[in-house]
Amino acid sequence: MKLTKSLFLAFAGLGLFACSNEEVVDNGGIDGGATVTVKIADVISRAPATPTMGDNNDEFPVDIQSAKLILEAAAGGDELDITQELKESNSQFTFSQVRNPTKLTLVINDGQESGLVLEDVVNTGLAEPLYASTTQFTPTSETEYTATLQPEHRLARLQFSGLDFKTAGSSYTALRLDGIYLNGAIKVEGTTGDKLIANASGAWTTVKDWSAPVFDEINKIVIGAGAEDGPWPSAGCYAYNILPNGNDLPKLTVCFSGAEQPNVVGAGTYRYARVATYKVEGNDFSGLAGVEENGTITEFVPGYIYNITKLEMADKDLGPTPEGGKDITLTATVTVTPWKLINGTVEWQ
User: Which of 21, 114, 237, 344 is spaced 20 to 30 A from 36 at the CA atom?
Assistant: First the structure.
């Protein structure tokens, strides 16, 4: 089912409404006992499917777990809990007997003005933290004023499912899948050089000590006694909210251990597969931000869900370090949603 309501669109002209061509009053120019009316467009909250599924550019609302509207003023300022009202319907909020207002702020899901930390947002799901503020108030009459807020998405969401290994014809006699991680995810918004990186053989030990859980343990025997068939997970997905970093995309890396491969010398027991390229599924890439004409994803755009499925690997995609295999490509399937969805594929490195 295609959902047409999303916080991203509903807030595009976030109505502290009553459009007016009159002058804008900035920082406390309202001297009398004025009324400031705030109207926020309809926002519906829902529990997300696991994973969030749909067609490219399907839209999904932000899951509102908390919301507050804060007016700072010499008199009449207040903090309103508007969580339930935003979940249910269009709502109008009024601050009365306001004198010298200085700032109006909207905070959803504990959003903050800057400096989001990966550790705090990676597992927030569709309950994305949002924030907007203004110091400008527009008069619609002598005693009535409005303002406009426009919160913007700052997270992208990656969902991985269908992870599998082609055992038919494999040269391995033993292989264990330890887990997956996002190599190169930035830790703090705006600090592009501060990343979580594990590139050495034995990287899985390093990853499990990361404070931000952009990894999942899987612990499945792929080949050998007690082997289990994929895909992993058998249902649902591994999902991470990330802080986008332009065209520097974190690379999904798959970790294996206990590798036994007869007639291979000096490779050790660790094996890794790393995504080289993310691609959008299908042939129509129109309207998809951060996607080249050939479907290659060059940027994880804030406000989009990237649903990556059918992550199938074979012997050729594995290497002894997290750089993965060499000169090999393997296509897997991906999807993108704001909270739009994009479906797509990946190529292994």
Answer: 114
